[in-house]
Amino acid sequence: YVADKQVTHVAVPPQGGTFFTAVGTKLKIWNAQSAEVIQELDVPAERIEAIAPSPQGTRLAVGTLAGAVLLYSSDDWSAPPPEAPARESRVLALAFAPNGEVVAASFEDGEVRLCDVAPAAWQETSFSVPTGALALTFCEAGRVLATGNNVGEIHLWEPEAGRLRAVIKAHPMRINALCPLNETTLVSGGG
Predict the structure, then answer these.
(1) Which of 61, 76, 77, 83 is nearest to 11 (CA)?
(2) Per residue in 89-129, pLDDT tens?
(3) Are residues 170 and 148 in contact, defined by beta-carbon separation less than 8 angstroms?
(4) Whether the predicted pLDDT of 184 surpasses 90
(5) Buried residues in 86-117 as b, exposed as e (16+ CB within 10 A)
(6) What is the Cβ-side half-sphere exposure of residue 64, based on CA atoms within 13 angstroms?
(7) How far apart are CA 128 and CA 126, in angstroms?
(8) Per-residue confidence (pLDDT) for residue 182, from 0 to 100
(9) Cα–Cα distance between 13 and 95 in angstroms, integer?
């Protein structure tokens, strides 16, 4: 695949039939086999800050500079997406729960919120991550939300219980990526 511009965001769902790229306000949906663009969308935002596909590959969450989270569906990628009410803080990272029904969003002000996908509405659950969560992933079948921050810490949250389980110093600098390897192992990338 060859990008026509610098790509700032890439997301690949585990199902692998499609993948997504974004730059500025342009979102492209690609066929993973042919590497051809299926659809190109203009996202109604000043700038795309984060993208995350659902594990099933049927939804895409898009976080914006203005703090909105847009929820696109494979039923009709071009349909106006439901939107969780914008916050006055830029979206830093997004992650879907394994069931695809909840998306976690982290914001520049350090807050992490959970959003029900249908309808697009914020849950009461929220917590604060010192220096902001730059990376998010669900693990333990969605029971734990891992956040990686600017000072190399991984915070393990239990959203249903509303508590912090543990803080792990994983890197000497910021954590840019988190991914569950299996039920008991979390892989992190820092820099």
Answers:
(1) 61
(2) 999 999 999 999 999 999 999 999 999 998 889 998 889 98
(3) yes
(4) no
(5) ebebbbbbbbbbbebebbbbbbbebbbbbbeb
(6) 21
(7) 7
(8) 83
(9) 11
> Which one-letter amino acid corresponds to residue 141?
A
59-77 b/e (C-beta count within 10 Å ≥ 16 → b): bbbbbbbebbbbbbebeeb
DSSP β-bridge partners for residue 1: none
Task: Give which of 136, 90, 82 is closest to 114, Cα–Cα.
Answer: 136
Euclidean distance between CA atoms 70 and 81, whole angstroms: 6
Q: What is the pTM of this model?
A: 0.92
Task: Give DSSP secondary structure letters for 7-59.
Answer: --EEE--TT-SEEEEEETTEEEEEETTT--EEEEEE-SSS-EEEEEE-TTSSE
